Amino acid sequence: MQRPFLFFTSLFAFFSVGCGGDENTGGAQPESGKISNNYWEGTFAELDSTFVDDVSDGNVTVLRLRDSMQAFSGTLSSQGPDGEQNVFRYKEGKAHGLCVMRDKSGGRTEANYRDGVLHGNFVIFGRDGSERFRWRYDNGRKIRD
Fold first, then answer.
1. Would residue 20 count as lying in a domain?
2. Mean pLDDT in the chain?
3. Are 111 and 125 in contact (CB under 8 A)?
4. Is the pLDDT assigned to residue 30 strictly greater than 80?
5. Bridge pairing between strands 108-114 and 97-102
6. For 81-127, what is each residue's pLDDT tens digit?
7. Domain of 97?
8. Alpha helix locations (H) across the chain?
9. Is 70 exceeded by the pLDDT of residue 11?
10. What's the number of domains the chain is made of?
11. Which of 1, 42, 66, 104 could form a disulfide with 82 if both were Cys (CB 3.0 to 4.6 A apart)?
12. Using CA atoms, how far apart are residues 75 and 45, in angstroms rounded to an integer?
């Protein structure tokens, strides 16, 4: 009776230690323009040369790797030449979760997506951090608050 318990305990420990989430866990950052642990970081130009937008899935844009046409899943962080920064999260090529865009003047936009469509809050902040506009979406449709 003791033997099966030890086997399953060992198996559980192996999977608990060996399996992680799908986000970058703070290890070494990937080389610019490269994918590591479902995390991609690079410039806007590298983004355009690495990925392609595909609209073959109805009206939802699917982000695919240009070389293999495989849908991207993970976090994508891109920087523009004037300090702009975008951080998007994708699931099977579709925007999914909180996405943050920062412009060169310091303004910020936060949008929530589910399966490639706006779902939840869409908020625009001024460069001083104050909330300027807020909308709420339900499966891509703007709703009243």
1. no
2. 82
3. no
4. no
5. antiparallel
6. 999 999 999 999 999 999 999 999 999 999 999 999 999 999 999 99
7. 37-143
8. 2-18, 44-50
9. no
10. 1
11. 104
12. 17
Residue 32 located in a structural domain: no
In this structure, is residue 6 part of a structural domain? Answer: no
* CATH assignment at residue 127: 2.20.110
Task: Give the separation between CA 65 and CA 51, rounded to whole angstroms.
Answer: 5
Cα separation of 106 and 84, whole Å? Answer: 8
Q: Is the pLDDT of residue 140 over 90?
A: yes
- Only one residue has tokens 């706006």, namely 118
How many Cα atoms sit within 13 Å of 5 on the Cβ side? 2
Residue 29, in any domain of the structure: no
Q: Comparing C-alpha atoms, which of 85, 77, 88 is closest to residue 30? A: 77
Those residues whose C-beta lies under 8 Å from the C-beta of residue 18, and which sit 6 or more positions away, are none
Cα–Cα distance measured from residue 77 to residue 13, given in angstroms and rounded to the nearest whole number: 33
